[in-house]
Amino acid sequence: MKLHIINTGFFKLDGGAMFGVVPKSIWQRTNPADEKNLCTWAMRCLLVEDGNRLILIDNGLGDKQDEKFFSHYYLHGDDSLTKSIHHAGYTEQDITDVFLTHLHFDHCGGGVKRVDDKLVPAFPNARYWSNEDHWRWATEPNAREKASFLKENILPMKESGQLEFIDLHGESPFSQFNIFFASGHTDKMMIPMIRYKGKTVCFMADLLPSVGHIPLPYVMGYDTRPLITLSEKEIFLKEAADFRYVLFFEHDPEIECCTVKHTEKGVRVDQVFKLAEL
Questions:
Q1: How far apart are CA 106 and CA 73, in angstroms?
Q2: Residue 21, SS3?
Q3: N- to C-terminal Cα distance for the chain?
Q4: Tens of pLDDT, residues 192-234
Q5: Do the Cβ atoms of 246 and 201 come closer than 8 Å?
Q6: Please, which residues have CB within 8 angstroms of residue 176's CB and are 6 or more apart in sequence?
Q7: In sequence order, what are the residues at sequence separation of 6 or more whose Cβ sits closer than 8 angstroms to the Cβ of residue 232?
Q8: Which residues are 14's β-sheet partners?
């Protein structure tokens, strides 16, 4: 097995929204904001090379939205989904599976592209993986999350016949990773836990967007059920400290991975490092 980081660029979100009830005077120590109170965030995806399968975990914001949409998120950086896949030695046609942690636009937008005014899957030979509960949540959205679930990112997966659902109570369809289901941020978000080089690498998605979100009270204002997020974080982080999981961050602008440890103040960061150092 090989793991390839797929960098798809950076974007900006309001710092207060990203840290919820935590005061700016505290969170800005790790995530400084600009003059508009916006912080920079990565969209760091992962390509899993496992035998004859090439599994892409999340795929960033994409590039099919209009100028007004992008003006809200300040997409920047030299990386792109296509460029990163090619740098890893592959093309979009090589991808066999697209695993979507959840269907917010910054996690699935790159999975659909516009060709001659038609919306089609960007990975023509891939199966797209979600789960039935989350799919229903995304296609019948509540008012709070409606702006994050864009039909043009989601419906073409099903219309193409490439959509598959993971059984919430069954075995993972992937030989080398299990799935932790979390419902605090959005309903039935999927956290893949990948067995790699004798370790467990956990793709944290929005359960832990960054190292700065490890302390339990640091819960995003975007989370639909913040008290459930608190509980899920506590369960997950205790296990991560006990078993020395490697946490892989999708949104941290600088840090790719870390381990955590038990302290008197709760679970805290132990070591930070790059995925390539494993």
A1: 10
A2: coil
A3: 13
A4: 999 999 999 999 999 999 999 999 999 999 999 999 999 999 9
A5: yes
A6: 1, 48, 50, 194, 195, 196
A7: 182, 183, 184, 207
A8: 38
Phi, psi dihedral angles at 244 (to 5 degrees):
60, 45
Which tokens in the block code for residue 245?
């999981």
pTM (predicted TM-score): 0.98
268 - beta bridge partners? Answer: 261
Closest Cα to residue 123, out of 139, 135, 136, 108?
A: 108
Look at residue 156 in the predicted model and tell me its pLDDT: 98
> How far, in Å, CA of 154 to CA of 160, rounded?
11
Report the alpha-carbon distance of residue 80 to residue 27 in Å, rounded. Answer: 28
Q: What's 226-277 look like in SS3? A: HHHHHHHHHHHHHHHHHHCCEEECCCCCCCCEEEEEEECCEEEEEEEECHHH
Per-residue CA distances from 199 to 75, 179, 232, 240, 262 (Å): 33, 15, 21, 11, 18
What is the number of alpha carbons within 13 Å of residue 70 lying toward its C-beta?
12
**DSSP designation for 101:** S
Q: Give me the pLDDT at residue 264, please.
A: 97
Burial of 37 by CB count in 10 Å (0-12 exposed, 13-18 middle, 19+ buried)?
middle
| Phi-psi region at 170: left, alpha or beta (left = phi > 0; alpha = psi -120 to 50) | beta
